[in-house]
Write a structure and sequence with these properties.
Elements (H helix, E strand, L loop, with lengths): L3 H12 L12 H11 L2 H10 L6 H27 L11
Length: about 90
Amino acid sequence: MSSPDEISDALLWAAGAPEEPRFESLDIDEMMAALRAHRLEGRLLSRARAQDVSMPAVLDERVRGAHRDIVARVHGQMALFRAGGFDAFSQVGA
């Protein structure tokens, strides 16, 4: 079980805080729940890539999978809007 401070540090880093967290000590299930609750999956992946920060393989795989699921849901929702004759994305700025 991770301490609340460890999870908070990891979430703060994903959101832009300067101090890199120690991912090795995190409980993967707790970290995934926290990322989901705060919708930070994509930001964590982006920052880890940009700064060449390694995460434990299991955490990396789970975050990537969760992010893929989110992207797939968003694309599915976009397809539903378009199939219904409404393209909200072409209406921006109109």
